Amino acid sequence: MSRRNTGLTVRAPAKINLHLGVGGVRPDGMHPLLTVYQAVSLYDDLAAAPAEAWRLGLTVDDHVAAHEVPLAGDNIVDRAADLLAAHHGLARADHGAAVHITKAIPVAGGMAGGSADAAAALVALDRLWGLETCDDDLLAIAAELGSDVPFALLGGTAVGTGRGEIVTPVADHGSWWWVLALSARGMSTPAVYRHFDELHPDASPEPPPADALLAALDSGDPARLAATLHNDLQAPAFDLRPDLADRIARGEAEGALRGLVSGSGPTCVFLCGSGEHARAVAAALRVPDPATGAEPVVLVAHGPVAGAHVVEGLAAHG
Ligand SMILES: C[C@](O)(CO)[C@H](O)COP(=O)(O)OP(=O)(O)OC[C@H]1O[C@@H](n2ccc(N)nc2=O)[C@H](O)[C@@H]1O
Ligand SMILES: Nc1ncnc2c1ncn2[C@@H]1O[C@H](COP(=O)(O)OP(=O)(O)OP(=O)(O)O)[C@@H](O)[C@H]1O
């Protein structure tokens, strides 16, 4: 029986930074981090099928701003394809694919949606083109694409060091429930880091540690985790977007164990004690804005979940 290559779909998760410790800016303009990532159950799917030429398409969930996703050669998925091909000495012109992203992770939301797509592209194209890239090489290519991309490959719960690209899994004995309060407008990650520099011109090169948070993860106790969540980019994000502080206060007033800005923002995440608790807090936050009448997008997710993985495909019997 022959096998026909019909393509495959790879799913990659959004992330939350449970701890985002930021050190003073490095000479290369990046910041040393000690972060603890958790992958949560909000996903982008990337389908890749054989094709002569390179094509990239996009479908988005209602809450995702499609016009903010570049499709004309400047998508992080294009860069992932270029780097993967170059790593194997392949001419890009000879390696096409019909790639389609189905996006649920908000754009510029601080949840690493672009990084998820890049990680999904590496896994999908590696399989589609039959490259069998080893894990270490995939992680190295991911690190070139962006600081959060290696974690999107790994998933679960992990410590990130360097500029975030060096990832090590950690013990996590919890199943954590989150409310995600999305924002209609995205935020620029470089702008938030620049404002961190303005607020902390003398920041130590050594980012603050996460020992208490790591112990809380090991314990599986949501109240302990809530007490140790930490984000050094939250204060600069609040300055740039004062509405976020109100949002965090609202979620906590509605009974969430703790609210936090996700990464560089603007998504606000709320830790809850159970799925039921998270659904109740989410419902309480879905109140139309009195000025505009618009209802905020508030989702429920759990973590940790797997990193980029194949959910459909590759070969069909023909
Ligand atoms: C905010 C976080 O999401 C937290 O995990 C990341 O630090 C940002 O990750 P990312 O978007 O994958 O970042 P990259 O694509 O590598 O870098 C985008 C920009 O963010 C800033 N940046 C990023 C990572 C880092 N450790 N220091 C930085 O200063 C730099 O201005 C950089 O030009
Ligand atoms: N596949 C993609 N999905 C989303 N944005 C993309 C993609 N490719 C390129 N971009 C560009 O990257 C920018 C940042 O996108 P992304 O959604 O990854 O931000 P983010 O979630 O804030 O990331 P992080 O938390 O890692 O800083 C977008 O504003 C967009 O211009």
From TrEMBL:
GO terms for biological process: isopentenyl diphosphate biosynthetic process, methylerythritol 4-phosphate pathway; terpenoid biosynthetic process. PANTHER family: 4-DIPHOSPHOCYTIDYL-2-C-METHYL-D-ERYTHRITOL KINASE, CHLOROPLASTIC. It catalyses: 4-CDP-2-C-methyl-D-erythritol + ATP = 4-CDP-2-C-methyl-D-erythritol 2-phosphate + ADP + H(+). It comes from the Bacteria. Keywords: ATP-binding, Isoprene biosynthesis, Kinase, Nucleotide-binding, Transferase. One of its GO terms (molecular function) is 4-(cytidine 5'-diphospho)-2-C-methyl-D-erythritol kinase activity. Residues 75-156 form the GHMP kinase N-terminal domain. The active site is at K15, D148. Residues 214-286 form the GHMP kinase C-terminal domain. It is an enzyme of class 2 (transferase). Pathway: Isoprenoid biosynthesis; isopentenyl diphosphate biosynthesis via DXP pathway; isopentenyl diphosphate from 1-deoxy-D-xylulose 5-phosphate: step 3/6. ATP binds at P106, V107, A108, G109, G110, M111, A112, G113, G114, S115, A116. Its EC number is 2.7.1.148. Pfam families: GHMP_kinases_C (PF08544), GHMP_kinases_N (PF00288). This is 4-diphosphocytidyl-2-C-methyl-D-erythritol kinase. Belongs to the GHMP kinase family. IspE subfamily. SUPFAM superfamilies: GHMP Kinase, C-terminal domain (SSF55060), Ribosomal protein S5 domain 2-like (SSF54211). Catalyzes the phosphorylation of the position 2 hydroxy group of 4-diphosphocytidyl-2C-methyl-D-erythritol.
